[in-house]
Each structure stands twice: as structure tokens, then as C-alpha cells.
Specification:
It is built from 7 helices and 6 strands, in the order H-E-E-H-E-H-H-E-H-E-E-H-H. By secondary structure, it is of the alpha/beta class. The chain has a single domain, classed as Glycerol-3-phosphate (1)-acyltransferase (3-Layer(aba) Sandwich), CATH 3.40.1130.
Length: 223
């Protein structure tokens, strides 16, 4: 069962910023990271960021140097031992990813209602071929219950450096991150779950090819 803790203390903020400076800084040194659409992230209020999932470093790429803190939703089995303590010391919400429960959904909604940003990877797992897979349903519920705006986000370039199944990342290369236009809760409520999923899949894939075009790379075939 997910547990929601108050993680708004000063000490946690300082602790988080210290490690963010190190981890994000390392990723920025490893790759030439270019970010587009930072102005699309609202300065206040609940936000649900939904991103494609290319590698282990996606967390650092999504958060980057943005001023607002992102909450992440790792699987609950990681919250054990020393590394579990480390994960819990940041802005995280544990969840059973194999069988998400109503309590888990309520935990995410509560964080959103507090006016925070929650970042999720709706494909469910890292890509096998660099393309964006069909996203899983259920995310519109989070928006309907919390009133959050949704920000479609895409990452490209890091899959070639650290694909699924590869033990260590390759250095060098260029990575791009793009934040799309905010999608208001009213629009998602009006569409309904099925139509929203279809539209959002198309939005992410179009953004992916737009990002690749900006990076001078050929488009992917999503037909």
C-alpha cells in the first residue's frame, strides 16, 4: 500500500537539491542535452508529467534544472535496505506497478492536490526499440480527481547510449528533451478515457518526431 508522507521540509529540500546537482550535472556532462518547451511547465499548481521511457537516466532528464520539484513513482519493492532509504529520502511515492491499487492512486492524487508535480512513465517499462509504445490507461483518473494539468514529455537520444539490457551507458552523443503544451483537465474529462488515450498516444509520437527533427535525425515510422 502506498504511503503519503509530508516531504515539504527544508532539510529534505536541501538534501534533494544537493543530489540533484550531482546526478543531473553528471548526465549533462555525459551527453549534450538540449531542452525545448521549458516555458510549458506551470510555475504553480498540480501538474502531471507523462514521459516516454528510454533509459535509467530519464528521471534526471525529465527533472533537469527546472525550478519545481518532481515527485516520482518507483515500485515499492525498491524501498528496502540502504538504497530503499535513499529512494525514500527524495520526493517519491511507492507503488505496486504490477497491480496498482486504489490506495496507490489516492496517494498520487493527494500529492497532486497539494500542488506538486508528479512524473510518470505511461508505457510502463523502458522501450525495447527506441519508439513510444502504447500507453496504459488510468491516467485520466488522476487528472479528473486532482484537477491537474497534463504535460506530454518526450526524450530522445539516450536510448542509443543506454538501451534496455545494456549493463553500462556509453558516453557522448546528443540527447533532447521536449515539454509539450499543457493539456487542461477539462479537455481530458470531455474526451473520456478511450479517446484521450488515443489522442495522447498520437501527441507523444508526433512530439517525438518533432524533437528528432530538431536534432537533425530522421523521423520514426509510427504508422
Amino acid at each position: 500500500m502506498a504511503e503519503v508522507k509530508n516531504k515539504d521540509g527544508v532539510f529534505r529540500r536541501v538534501w534533494f537539491e544537493f543530489w540533484r546537482f550531482i546526478s543531473v550535472g553528471l548526465v549533462w556532462l555525459m551527453y549534450r542535452v538540449t531542452v525545448y518547451g521549458k516555458e510549458n511547465i506551470p510555475h504553480a499548481g498540480p501538474v502531471l508529467v507523462l514521459s516516454n521511457h528510454q533509459s535509467f537516466v530519464d528521471i534526471m532528464l525529465c527533472q533537469g534544472w527546472l525550478g519545481r520539484t518532481f515527485y516520482y513513482v518507483p515500485r515499492d519493492t525498491l524501498f528496502v535496505g540502504f538504497w530503499g532509504w535513499m529512494i525514500d529520502s527524495f520526493y517519491t511515492i511507492p507503488i505496486n506497478q504490477d497491480q496498482p491499487t486504489l490506495q496507490s492512486m489516492k496517494a498520487i492524487i493527494e500529492i497532486l492536490k497539494r500542488g506538486h508535480i508528479v512524473c510518470l512513465y505511461p508505457e510502463g517499462s523502458r522501450t525495447l526499440d527506441g519508439k513510444i509504445d502504447e500507453i496504459k490507461p488510468g491516467f485520466s483518473l488522476l487528472v479528473r480527481r486532482s484537477g491537474a494539468v497534463m504535460i506530454p514529455t518526450v526524450i530522445d537520444g539516450v536510448f542509443e547510449r543506454w538501451p534496455r539490457g545494456q549493463k553500462y551507458p556509453k558516453l557522448g552523443g546528443r540527447v533532447g528533451v521536449m515539454y509539450g503544451k499543457p493539456i487542461p483537465a477539462e479537455h481530458i474529462k470531455e474526451l473520456g478515457e478511450e479517446k484521450f488515450i488515443a489522442e495522447f498516444n498520437q501527441t507523444l509520437r508526433q512530439m517525438h518526431n518533432d524533437l528528432r527533427q530538431k536534432m537533425g535525425k530522421p523521423s520514426l515510422d509510427y504508422t
